[in-house]
Specification:
Length: 144
């Protein structure tokens, strides 16, 4: 369900690029960055995208999904750090925490502490949400 709504918003953004490209024929490739904190299943997203793109210029486009590891920042001392696989796994394995983060990724910071100064004021730099990274459009010009 969640993946379908994300796929629809990605498709809308892809179609915007398509419409603003002169001589656009079809969408060749879609690159997406999936933040680990979004807990979006990349394969479910890929499937949802193939379903919602039927009968659109993005039908049969190649979909590349890159997983983005979360990065956090402490506003007090300016320290920035990445979360390790074990922390991500700990969140994913806790059903209540995983559901919370899935709905509202910002809650994860309540479970974190700055490794340098111990502050509990932690900001998410990246790793939440799903972002359309780039779109490759096949145009008339390329085909001659
Ligand atoms: Zn700090």
């Amino acid at each position: 369900m969640h993946e379908t709504s994300i796929a629809l918003s990605i498709l809308a953004a892809v179609e915007d690029v398509f419409r603003s490209t002169p001589g656009a024929r079809r969408v060749e490739k879609i690159r997406i960055r999936v933040g680990m904190l979004s807990l979006v299943d990349p394969e479910a997203l890929r499937f949802a995208l193939s379903v919602v793109s039927r009968d659109t210029p993005a039908e049969n486009a190649e979909v590349e999904i890159e997983t983005v590891r979360p990065r956090f920042r402490c506003p007090h001392c300016g320290y920035e750090w990445e979360v390790g696989d074990e922390d991500v796994k700990r969140i994913a394995d806790d059903p209540m925490l995983a559901t919370l983060v899935h709905i509202h990724p910002d809650v994860v910071v309540k479970y974190l502490r700055c490794p340098r100064c111990g502050s509990t004021d932690v900001e998410i730099v990246e790793g939440k949400g799903v972002v359309l990274h780039s779109v490759v459009i096949e145009t008339d010009e390329e085909k001659g």
